[in-house]
Amino acid sequence: MEHHVKCEPKDVARYVLCPGDQARAKKIADHFENAYLAADNRGIVVYSGTYKGVFMTSCGTGMGGPVVAIALEELAHMGADTFIRVGSCGVFQEGQMPGDVIIASGTFRAGGTSLSYLPLGFPAVPTYEVLRSMTDAADVLKIPYTVGVGMAGDSFYAPREPGSRDIFKTSGVVSVEMESDTLFIVGAYRRWRTGAVFTSDGTPKETKPAWGWDAFYQGEENAILIALDALYQISQRDEKVQFPAP
After folding, report:
1. Quick one: which of 128, 148, 228, 246 has the most CB atoms within 10 Å?
2. Quick one: three-class SS letters along the chain?
């Protein structure tokens, strides 16, 4: 049994949805058939069940790169190799609103955990197959989305350099959160498939405005549906062409 994720390999699927929010992990599991709680230890919760007949796992990791790396490593020890982060994010661009769905094409690395795996010059990008599966799923579901580069760091309340937000806004950055840099880099190093989809929790000037909660919850549900259908697509291709083991 792993040190932090306290469940058996039989309880962990190859296909994992990994939000930071433990409550969102439960919302994802509510879409499973025969869902059950497999682990709840040190802030990491694991639910498993089937979606359209495919065994999947939903793991709420908690916030930040260090716990994401721990959870992914231990889940992979038990058989997982495909991970989609279903998260929330802040935004930079005018016109972005609560509930907007953003699919990551890459992440500016502002966190520290990923540096323990690969040097800063190595790009943090998702696996193309996973990225494409999510855009295909969103198109079929008729859910509007943005594909773009975001940033991820370790600190939520730390002081910022004057003008730093303007730089990211000017360069077209569309999201800011705390986990995708670690997800993509650890995935690249370990040869896992990774992707990330986010729901905007605010506007460029305001985080989680009171008037935007309904839109946020709808966006959260939309992101969950995109991730679930993307993993289902991937699983169907895997049945035809075996994805090589790391």
Report:
1. 228
2. CCCCCCCCHHHCCCEEECCCCHHHHHHHHCCCEEEEEEEEECCEEEEEEEECCEEEEEEECCCCHHHHHHHHHHHHHCCCCEEEEEEEEECCCCCCCCCCEEEEEEEEEECCHHHHCCCCCCCECCCHHHHHHHHHHHHHHCCCCEEEEEEEECCCCCCCCCCHHHHHHHCCCCCEECCHHHHHHHHHHHCCEEEEEEEECEECCEECCHHHHHHHHHHHHHHHHHHHHHHHHHHHHHHHCCCCCC
**Does residue 4 sit within a domain?**
no
Whether this prediction's pTM lies above 0.85 is answered by: yes
Question: Do the domain assignments include residue 52?
Answer: yes
**Domains: count for the chain:** 1
Query: Sheet harboring 54-60: ordered strands across?
Result: 33-41, 44-51, 54-60, 15-17, 82-89, 193-200, 101-110, 146-153, 176-177
Residue 1 inside a domain? The answer is no
99-156 tens-digit pLDDT: 999 999 999 999 999 999 999 999 999 999 999 999 999 999 999 999 999 999 998 8
The domain in which residue 131 lies consists of 9-240
Neighbours of 240 (CB within 10 A): 6
2 in a structural domain: no
